[in-house]
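tmp note - Spore protein YkvP/CgeB glycosyl transferase-like domain-containing protein
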Amino acid sequence: MRLFYISSGCGFSFSPTMTDEDYNIIRAFRQLEKERKGFKLEVFLLKKDSSSTLLKRIKAFRPDAVLVFKGFRFPHRYVTAIRKMGYRIGVWLVDDPYRLKTHYQLVQPYAFVITQEASCVMFYRQMGKTCFHIPLAVNTQKYTPNPHVPSKYHSDICFVGSGFPVRIKMFDKLAPYLKYRRFFIIGQWWNRLKHYPVLKRGIINQPIPPSEVTKYYNGAKIVLNIHRTANDRLENFKNLPALTPNNRTFEIAACGAFQLASYRPHLRRYYKKDELVAFSGWKELERKIDYYLKHPHERREISERAYERTLSHHTYEARLTKLIETLNEYIWKENGKTGIRQPV
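out:
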């Protein structure tokens, strides 16, 4: 199979043209290119490579499929042009179901859709799109255990992520408990907290690069993973549930850190109960924080099992192997209808 990958063109101040997911996906594809006979990859870095060369590069590479990551920065006119050239082009969405309204418009010109959220597959299929579910994963070269991080990264409780409403509400409820603990809350929008003056000593109110995130994970006794609610952007116009755990689930586990994750219906498809502890609501979370802070041996045993599960099932190499096989089958069927040569 020959795959032409177009990056998102999104990022933060520390990486303005490429997301962490872009980097991790490209790295894993490159590794699979070495391991899988017949798999070839070409990468176009949006906002970095010249757009005037895009169509020429696609024509020269002759891909079996073109895959655009996220797609927000990729103009529809290019999608149309690529399809007119005779190539199948799809988009990989990773913000479902939160941005469903935006995605409804975004996917219109694409031949196929990949979504990280299981609940959205049928939505896109009902639009007439071929759609596959591929969850996000983890780069285990980047997110890795490190028991010797400096003391400045040490904490009882750590959370990394943006201050979406459900998280703001959760930490406002936990404020009286947290003020007696060593904690970190890291990401954007945390000045929205009602109890910001009480909690600000532990808040880093800006995104940080993954190289720093891993240090905070490794330095924490407990890492919190509070999933977003399904309609926190008011764009989920079909009210689809959020079933699939986020990529942070896999990243925390890959660091060998102990996490308490807010419950998602499909969580147990990825981790067993003795591999990852879930909670529902702030009262249960507070009880479990208190319990596991007092039981370090249990934390260690659970996090070790989650670590092993992650390395065997939830790396990007494993996830993209499934993606390649899924696309191969899709292209095989489509080419069979038209008599075009089959991919390897």
